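Archive maintenance. Older records in this collection stored only the sequence; we are now back-filling the structure field for every entry so that each record is complete. The fields below show one back-filled record exactly as it appears after the update. Entries are processed alphabetically, and NAD-dependent epimerase is next in the queue.

ARCHIVE ENTRY
Title: NAD-dependent epimerase
Organism field: Pedobacter psychrotolerans
Length field: 320
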Amino acid sequence: MILVTGGTGFLGAELIKQLTDQGLTVRALRREKSKIPDLIKDNALIEWFMADINEPSTLEEAFSGVTQVYHCAAFVSLNSKHKKQLFHVNIDGTSNIVNLCIENNCRLLHVSSIAALGIAKKGKQISERDFWEYDSKAHAYGLSKYEGEMEVWRGINEGLNGVIVNPSIIMGKSAGFEGSGAIFKLVKEGLPFYTNGASGFVDVEDVAQSMILLMAAEVTGERFIISSGNMHYQDLFTQIAQGFAVNAPTREAKPWMLGLAWRALKLVSVFTRKEPSITKDTATSSVTLSYYDNTKVIEQTGIHFKPVNQIITEITQYLK
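Back-filled structure field:
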């Protein structure tokens, strides 16, 4: 039996779809108030199991008969006020999953993040050999994913049969205008600014396919960057704008401008009680040049990633 945590999430739903498309039965975890995505709704091959990864007592029964676990569940936020919840879910929750995998002799594929990788030296790409130099002042999400990954490495040292994947920024049609799709909405509505940063991007379908291939591979105690390619944010915004046939951003948002923006929005949020659209962490990330090397996963699985240009075209056509 295959167990998937975070089954109602963006990546979890795509993973379950691909597994069930192969005729495999999947037991998927969901919380009581979670909405099942249309992508996998009414799928007879899914056994939904109500549980919370932070409550081990509800998890034990879910592991009955399970041999493979895909741990996709996570809390995502670049707002430092969510630090406590980020640590609770991404570290403590992962620790619970690791412990139960060891106890039940399950193979684990853990979804970490590029946020748990090292900072590249100037002019070089980040690879699996890089490890983030611990910094207690780093943004809470990155720190939580780093510490969560450390729980998996701890399990591997205790005999866990496990593999870690570090996806870059995951995009896909099924995200709509939520999550990574929010930038498509901003550009479509007339975003005037771009930032001088860069990152890696990948289609959600390719991430799920990579995970399935790695689960089946005879490899353990390894991590793999899952990324299609690197792109500067200015080019990303321009291609999205072209896809929607709107004006592309033409003004660069300088670091000092972003600094004023996140401080002002933080103050406004105190009175409106709404999440600020820019935080200190998102401002910092938007001007960081990060390039990722996907050689290892390609050599291991033979996967052919969908080019970032194609991903953008498909999403804009779908969202029009």
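Update note: Confidence is low (pLDDT under 50) at residues 258-262, 265-270. The chain has eleven helices and twelve strands.
Entry marked complete.
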